[in-house]
Structures are given as structure tokens and as C-alpha cells.
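Protein: Fibrobacter succinogenes major domain (Fib_succ_major)
Species: Candidatus Venteria ishoeyi
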Amino acid sequence: MKVTHYVNGTAIPIITNNTTWANLGDNNTSKAMTYYNNNSNSDYGALYTWATVMNGTSSSNSTPSGVQGVCSTGWHVPSDNEWKALEIYLGMTPSEADQTGWRGGLLGGKLKETGYSHWMSPNTMATNTSDFTALPGGYRNGLNGFFASQTVNGFWWTATQGSVTYGYYRTLKHNGAAIARDNYKKSQGYSVRCVMD
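Structure follows.
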């Protein structure tokens, strides 16, 4: 996703300064977006805080989430449970899907774009048999505003918070084919993938 406005036309603040990003805070109100290394021509899309992704909507773990958030009309931000449903469809067991950290063996390879146009080698077991075509957009650190991990890792927000200051997300990596499920600071700049309603 690379939108700069919500569907009502409200602009999302684009933050280029590291200190400004680091001062956003881990809350449900600090809306901000960025491009990796402030390059708006990137193939990887934009990075958003959790507050931006949610756009004032409360955390949801429903299927579907019911959270339009930053998504276009007819689309929504997937919940943690919706991500689990995808992972189970790919072959993960329900009990494994409930775990945090790296899990799923080689299932993440089914989500990753193949080749090395966007992923750093070795892009382990990337087959993209799901047609998800995940790209490693990296992230922006909520603690210092620094960018990291483009071509190495992809991070995607869910519509589900883990605590008042944390949100659930997924990670894929270039040198492995597992899928990480975890929750971290809402001021992190991560990608988001919308799902059709």
C-alpha cells in the first residue's frame, strides 16, 4: 500500500525527520507515514504507524475485522485472526498459528515474491504459490526514526492490538521461510496489506 490520504480526503502526515518520528509515541492517535529512506519512488510501498492504519477504529480480532482504516472503500485491514486463517490455509496447524515468534516451517515461502529483484539472496524457499507476492519493505524504528531491513524483511500490521501500546504484526525474511507473529510498539513504521471485504 502506498496511499497518502484516507478515503474522505484527509491527508496522512508524511514524516521525514528521524526525531519527529521517534517522538510520535506508542498510541492510537499519532498518525504518520513515511517512505523508506524518504524515497517516494520505492517499489515497496509506504510504511505506517498502527494509529494511521487503524484511523481511529478500535482494535479488532474478528473475521473479517470490520476495520477499513487506511484501506480503500470495499477493503479492510486484516485482523490477527484473519492472518491466522491464511496461515492455516497454507498448511500451519491451529496450535502453531496461535504461537508467537517464528513458526510455520517453510510456509512463508508461499507468500514471498520469487527471485532477487526485491528480496536479498538467498530468498529462501520463495515460491509465491499463494500469489501474495510479499515484498521486503523494511521498517522505520519507533525509538529513533531510523530505517532498516529493506530487501531483508517485510513487516505487516494487523488490526489487532497486543496491549495498549503494542500491535500485532507479521514478518517474513530473506534467509528463512517461516512466518513470525508478534506484537510491538505502535510507533513502528510497517507495511499494511488490505483484504477485500
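Remarks: The CA atoms of residues 25 and 187 lie 6 Å apart.
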